[in-house]
């Protein structure tokens, strides 16, 4: 029997962390420099309380916090 792995937002985070506008949004929200992908992931961890990317599973508390952060980013980005 094959073990079913939970769906995660890790790939989404890695894609978003490359986007300049997302890094700008994170810098504003976290009130810190976000110049690269590593700093973007660190800012997401700071803003969501996440300790490890492994926590970013669909339906989990960290997953919901990440979803809310992405919703905030989309609202911010669409307002500009």
Task: Tell me what you see in this structure.
- The protein is an all-alpha fold and 80 residues long.
- It has one domain.
- Helix content is 60%, strand content 0%.
- The radius of gyration is 13 Å and the shape is globular.
- The model has no long low-confidence stretch (mean pLDDT 94).
Please give a quick description of this structure:
This protein is an all-alpha fold and 80 residues long. It is built from four helices and no strands.
Relevant terms:
mainly alpha, about 80 residues, 4 helices
Helix/strand-derived class? mainly alpha
E-strand count? 0
- Total of helices: 4
**Alpha-carbon distance between the two ends:** 50 Å
Largest sheet: none
What percent of the residues sit in helical stretches (DSSP H or I)? 55-70%
For the residues shown, what is the average pLDDT? 94
Beta content = under 5%
H-E order: HHHH
Give the overall silhouette.
Answer: globular
Q: What is the radius of gyration computed over CA atoms, rounded to a whole number of angstroms?
A: 13 Å
Q: How many domain units?
A: 1
Sequence stretches where pLDDT stays below 50 over 5 or more residues: none
In terms of topology, how is this protein built?
Layout: H1 10-16, H2 20-30, H3 37-48, H4 61-78
Helix pairs in contact: 2-3
């Amino acid at each position: 029997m094959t073990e079913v792995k939970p769906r995660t937002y890790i790939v989404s985070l890695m894609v978003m962390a490359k986007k300049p506008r997302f890094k700008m949004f994170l810098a504003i929200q976290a009130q810190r420099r976000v110049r690269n992908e590593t700093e973007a992931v660190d800012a997401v961890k700071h803003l969501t309380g996440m300790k490890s990317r492994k926590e970013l599973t669909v339906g989990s508390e960290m997953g919901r916090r990440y979803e809310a952060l992405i919703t905030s980013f989309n609202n911010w980005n669409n307002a500009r």
